[in-house]
Design goal:
single chain, 276 residues, alpha/beta, 7-stranded mixed β-sheet
């Protein structure tokens, strides 16, 4: 990282350990001609081996100083650089600009990782897979099963749309400067359309948010105003249960019940995945 001081406002921790770089790129297994988008290339630790295997990639970098270094290092034919905030990027427009499925990778800034994961949900149908370096605590929540303290809104919202797999842990010493938290690599593979039940996207999010917004409350209380006790029971769900005990399929059933209600039912139907 010679010549560049890591900036806290961008949560910059640069991967430098050759062993972990090799393992991450091997897990991604990029191939020539694939459409790869890297979020937060930084000093290019992953960018270089990705280009070496895929021939050309796109990268999104918010730091203009790093963007300038990357432009000097890689020719335009190898690296298409988008200078800006990945969280503010028009991902649907990017996905629609090319018929090839997207492969998205990156060492995500910890302070925007969860919002960015949600921002990428609408383009899941155009994505082949995603490989991200994240805070280990976030990955624990992403892969958590019902019944554990890590299982929550993030778990449900991602697991209904993707197969989520933890790949490997990355120690703090693999970065410069070393972060105060542990990291892990996670893979997200969108579920095939044939696996996805139809459910109102707005209703699904509404049910999940309400259920986990009051974790200590039973569903009977947490969903008050959305579904009454009889409606919850009609979904084969115990109104006395708490949200963290329910599989993803139960939230799908509750959202479908809410969408079927005559008052204020959503007219928007999208495909979302069921339980893991």
């Amino acid at each position: 990282m010679k010549g560049h001081r890591a900036r806290r406002r961008f949560s910059q921790n640069f991967l430098h350990d050759a062993h972990y770089i090799e393992r991450i790129v091997a897990a991604i297994a990029p191939q020539p001609g694939e459409r790869i988008v890297e979020i937060g290339p930084g000093l290019g630790a992953l960018t270089e081996p990705l280009i070496a295997r895929a021939a050309a990639i796109t990268a999104v970098e918010i730091d203009r100083d790093l963007a300038a270094r990357l432009r000097d290092r890689f020719p335009a034919g190898q690296l298409v650089l988008v200078e800006g905030d990945a969280l503010a990027l028009d991902w649907p427009a990017l996905a629609a600009a090319d018929l090839r499925p997207l492969r998205i990778v990156g060492n995500l800034p910890y302070h925007i990782s969860t919002p960015l994961l949600f921002a990428l949900l609408p383009i899941a149908a155009q994505v082949r897979d995603q490989h991200f370096m994240l805070q280990k605590e976030v990955v624990d929540r992403m892969v958590a099963a019902p019944g554990g303290r890590d299982y929550g809104r993030l778990s449900v919202m991602l697991q209904f749309r993707y197969r989520v797999t933890r790949l490997l842990a990355v120690p703090a010493g693999a970065f410069s400067p070393a972060p105060q938290v542990s990291s892990a690599i996670v893979r997200l593979v969108p579920r095939p359309t044939a696996e996805l039940p139809a459910v109102g996207a707005d209703r699904f999010a509404q049910v999940v948010t309400a259920a986990f917004g009051k974790r200590r409350k039973t569903l009977r209380n947490a969903l008050a105003g959305l579904l009454d006790e009889a409606a919850i029971r009609a979904c084969s769900v115990d109104p006395g249960a708490r949200a963290e005990t329910l599989p993803v399929a139960a939230f799908v059933a509750l959202a479908q019940r809410l969408s079927a209600a005559p008052a204020g039912a959503s007219g928007i139907v999208v495909h979302l995945a069921g339980s893991r």
